[in-house]
Amino acid sequence: MNAEKTRNIGIIAHVDAGKTTTTERMLFYSGENHSIGEVDDGSATMDFMEQEQDRGITISSAATTIYWKDHQVNIIDTPGHVDFTAEVERALRVLDGAVGIFCAVSGVEPQSETVWRQSNHYNVPRIAFINKMDRMGADFYNVMEDIHHKLGESCLALSLPVGSESSFSGIIDLLEMKMIVYDQSSKGLSFSIEDIPEDLVDKAQEYHEKIIDAVASIDDRIMDLYFNGDEIPHQMIVDALRKGTINRAFLPVCVGSSLKNIGVQNLMDWIVALLPSPSDVPPIKGISVRKGEEVNVKHDKNAPLLALIFKISFDPQAGPLCFVRVYSGVLRKSSTVYNIGKKKRERVNRILRMHADKTDDLTELEAGDIGVVVGFKDIQTGDTIGTEGYQVLLEKMDFPDPVISIAIEPESTSDQGKLAEALRMLSIEDPTFTVKENEETGQVVISGMGELHLDVLYTRITKEMKISCQKGNPQVSYRESITSAATVTQEFKKVIANKENWAKITLTVRPAGEKGGVHYICSAKNRDVPPEMFQAVERGVKSSFQSGIKLGYEVCDLVAELVDIQYSELTASEFAYEACGAQAFDAACNQAQPVLMEPIMDLVITTPSQYMGEVMSTLSMRGGIVSRMESKTSADQIFAQAPLAQLFGYSTALRGVTQGRGSFVMQFDHFAPKR
């Protein structure tokens, strides 16, 4: 593998912007597929799960590899639906670049903003592709303005559309200053280069000058050539564009219609020309296990092995398929590696290159490459794989807490074991899916990010895994918190097996504020106390985070601080300090005015303007508070917040008042005291 000629990219966008359709064209033009799969008829290669084909949406990030212009491009096609945000988060964590796809009619949609914020967090360089120029209401220039206004990006067009809607016929390459017309009889595989139509020459020249201005600000040599009236070499412009893209000085923008086979090859050219190789991106941060210090992990195939498991998918025959990004060193088939977080050795039985649901066997993966490992037994998303001699933990991925739950139970006792195993597999695959048993009722409760998320998982259990089970109605995952600060001194004393166990601590709890999270701090400074006693108190307090205060719900948005600890060598035991920590936390929280917290959701409702009144009325009846409204040519949008408990069945109500034309997306924002 040549790292300089490798691109690890993701396709990110709002649901239904054309991500999978674009990826299918890439597979076809690169020769990976001999025919084009379509989302609409359920034949898309990348949507290979049965439910993805049924629903016409992407649920899990499919990985594939194509070869284009002597470059290896590893592509991850991510979901656009808000319920599958964790899939996008996992993909962005390991990618070097991304293609953001925007609908030429709808522009920047709510989930576009979410994935853009996620990619900003990981500092991922991007190219924008404005798709669906053949659709009624398509407006390339309006979408560029929308991207600048909503995402704060400085857009730099690399191509312009020739016509729009039904008259969309080709694109203008602004670097070559030529028109490209794609042959529809070969599904866009062949194309012709023609002169720019006279009515578009001035517009093309204007945008060509913008490219020269942008690259001149990056490369002084271009500025000198420009002012001297000399010709600027093509490669010099491309090199400056690449530098600006990687530094995120501007956002390169391409245009086309994937469904009509226009502009995708031009986009592929720019992917290999502008997006970074693994050696172009900054070193990834890691934590040395032995020293506890932050270290920079550089891209180097001669360094010790370090790789991150970013996704796990179960195969009925092979077991866990572990999607891995190698950051340094070489991962070899039939070798033994070390799971640094779990401190366990694992064997690499096979290494695969994925082509959606098809595979090629490999002997090794070098630094910068992405592949799949078969053979790991005890593994989780976010685990770091390396060697015992060089133990560095790559940063963990943070996932949002599930906010909606349903009870699930098998129809017969023979299905009980199968259901438990299926739920265990699904929770390893998906970090935002959790399984708990209600201690009082014995019911198994599963939790996820939304109704669609749980519906997809339930359908996988019943259809894919063929387990007969029933589910209850959706329930809100409440939390508990406190509204004031409290400090308690707690003493624990118990005689066990004729030995006195004693511990005494002082603990303070206080609110952490909205979205403040749950934190444990130790400020006690008693140097006579062994470290294991401090650790025991921490275990006791943190175990109480899960069991709640009054009602048994997990706690949220509070800080617990150990301010004092007393110690007696004769009676101290870890058991005593752990129990004392749990009791102190309970006592302090009960004095700090505990309160039940409910999840508040961010909503974006899209509706034709004539139904705005009815939509606002249904929203206010469900406790919704509107923050702002936006008018677009295609429809109006309402941005609001509402309690999740009031939103069950809202999609049916919204369709009812908008004659089926309204839609909404929602995602968790914060917990607030229940009204």
Unreliable spans are 37-61
Percent of residues in helices comes to: 25-40%
CATH topology of the largest domain: Rossmann fold
Mean pLDDT over all positions: 84
- Calculate Rg over CA atoms: 28 Å
Percentage of residues in DSSP E strands: 25-35%
End-to-end Cα distance, whole Å, is: 58 Å
Strand order of the largest sheet: 18-17-23-14-15-22-19-20
Global geometry = globular
Give the name of the CATH architecture of the largest domain.
3-Layer(aba) Sandwich
Biggest sheet overview? 8 strands, antiparallel
Number of self-contained structural domains: 5
Number of helices: 15
CATH homologous superfamily identity of the largest domain? P-loop containing nucleotide triphosphate hydrolases
Quaternary structure annotation: single chain
Task: Give the number of DSSP strands.
Answer: 38
Outline the structure in words:
The protein is of the alpha+beta class and 675 residues long. The chain has five domains: 3-274, P-loop containing nucleotide triphosphate hydrolases (Rossmann fold, 3-Layer(aba) Sandwich); 284-394, Beta Barrel (Elongation Factor Tu (Ef-tu), domain 3), CATH 2.40.30; 404-477, Elongation Factor G (Translational Gtpase), domain 3 (Alpha-Beta Plaits); 480-592, Ribosomal Protein S5, domain 2 (2-Layer Sandwich); 597-673, 2-Layer Sandwich (Alpha-Beta Plaits). Helices cover 27% and strands 34% of the residues. The chain is built from 15 helices and 38 strands. The strands form eight sheets. It has an eight-stranded antiparallel beta sheet with strand order 18-17-23-14-15-22-19-20. A seven-stranded mixed beta sheet has the order 2-3-1-4-5-11-6, sandwiched between helices. Strands 25, 26, 27, 28 and 29 form a five-stranded antiparallel beta sheet that branches. α6 packs across α7 and α12 packs across α13. The radius of gyration is 28 Å and the shape is globular. The protein starts with 5 loop residues before the first strand and ends with a strand.
